[in-house]
Amino acid sequence: MKIQKSLIILFALTCLSSAQADFLDAAEAYENKDYEAAFKEFSELARLGNKRAQFNLGVMYLNGEGVEKNISLAYAWGKLSEHDAHPEFAQISERILKQVPTDSHHPLTIAAEEIQAEFGDQAIIHKLSPITYIPKSSDDSQQAVVTPIERGAPKYPKEALNERKQGWVTAVMDIHPDGSVRAVQVVESFPDSTFERSAIDALSQFKFKVSYPDQVEPYVIQAKQTMIYELALQASKGRVNKLYKERLNKLRTYASDDHPDAQYIYAVAARSHLVPDDQKITQDEANQWLLKAAQNGHVDAQYLLGKNILRGEGCRVEKQKAVDWIVYAAKQGHDKSAREVHRLLTKYNNLNNTNQTPETWLKQSAEAGNPESQLDYSEFLLSQSTPTKEDIKLAQTMLNDYKSERKAGVTWYQQMSRLASLNGNDKKAQKYQKKADKMAKKLGWDMTLAMQ
Questions:
Q1: Cβ of 267: how many Cβ atoms within 10 Å?
Q2: pLDDT of residue 279
Q3: CA 189, CA 196: separation in Å to the nearest integer?
Q4: What confidence category does residue 2 fall into, taking pLDDT thresholds of 50, 70 and 90?
């Protein structure tokens, strides 16, 4: 009754690179006959509602690959994977029912019902899927109003000018209650990373006015921005917009073919202001693409989906569901998610599915290379009542790492001042602090607010 290896659902790795998509890792492990690793990955994704992973799990239980052979679980997972888009997924249950005596069918049905109850579509909707938000009247809105005050144009990189290169960068940024922009992170850049540093530098200088409804505690707002780099002397005006739409069409094709990278990028890109209103997708639809990518193991999608659910972006606010996605991604080593878990633990004191301290998650994020977390963790280390030599050394390393990725800003100069003071160099400490104060004043930062 062995189902051949060729029936395992695999990806063709031709359309996009995807270093973070667990399904691709699992498929590759299976191809290399590392069945134990493949079984582990497919098991996790199957429990997230991934139909292809559920099918593959059924095959592996049936063949005894990476796990002890179990006909009941093979039938149960195979049955769960069945859906209209892939009628071929029914082959597992059909083969088993044909070859197992009729009087043994009932235990198979019981096993399938148990798996269905825990990991079926309704269970996934209840535990993980964003619920579409029904907007209230404008009078009941609890959303902050963000009004731009200063939005300077980015500098065109010299190398791009020399090569007559055009493109765009889509980034997410945190807008703090004082209207300053911090923690800018690139989501997509085209045609390569040429424009990323310029976009980050420009967005970091943006300034907004943030108005919160009465009785709403000020909070950090995450916003998306696409910056276009277009040369006026190019052959046709709007060429970048045309390229963007062409890129979007390709992304949707790949996304429809169930590629996790494309699903994630399309969810973000198709909400951009570069997209005409008649082609722009709703936030609800974007969340559904993020859900598909998340179920495929894409950690960036898991993180963004969790953030959207947490803030009620196109869906109902469900704290625990949001936390589950973010913590899951953090446990996979995702730096932004680990940083967000730290923020949530700091705000709520405890979360249902983690017993680690906030600082543990912040350290994980910093060690994974997140510049903002490197800055914050260095602050944590240097703020101890008696920092050890190891603490001071690690803080120095993280501040150096941050500086290699970002421009020195207010907080960086503040930490360098503390570091210099701890090393006994008061003159240098004063110099750094003056630089921080001057920069904060220029940017209009409210240094009295403790930002979370």
A1: 28
A2: 79
A3: 7
A4: low
Domain shared by 119 and 229, yes or no: no
Query: What's the mean pLDDT when you consider all of the chain?
Result: 85
State the pairing for strand pair 181-190/167-175: antiparallel
What residue has token string 């044909």?
98
Max CA distance (Å), the chain: 86
Please tell me the distance from the alpha carbon of residue 61 to that of residue 42, in angstroms, as a whole number.
11
Same structural domain, 210 and 249 = no
Distance of CA 301 to the CA centre of its chain: 4
Q: Are 127 and 194 in contact (CB under 8 A)?
A: no
Under 8 Å between Cβ of 132 and 316 = yes
Q: Round to whole Å and give the CA distance between 374 and 174.
A: 17
Entry pTM: 0.75
Q: One-letter amino acid identity for 125?
A: I
As beta bridge partners, residue 189 has: 169
Please say whether the beta carbons of 41 and 297 come within 8 A: yes
Range of the domain at 216: 144-234
The answer to whether residue 201 sits within a structural domain is yes
In a domain, 339, yes or no: no
Residue pLDDT, tens place only, 53-103:
999 999 999 999 999 999 999 999 999 999 888 889 999 999 999 989 998
Domain boundary among 281, 301, 317: 317
* Residue found by looking up tokens 């680990």 in the block: 338
Residue 334 lies in a domain: no
Same domain for 160 and 272: no
Helix residue ranges per DSSP H, 155-282: 158-162, 196-204, 239-256, 260-269
* Contact yes or no for 72/107 (Cβ under 8 A): yes
Q: Are residues 36 and 94 in the same domain?
A: yes
Angle between helix axes 71-81 and 105-119 (nearest 10 degrees) is 50
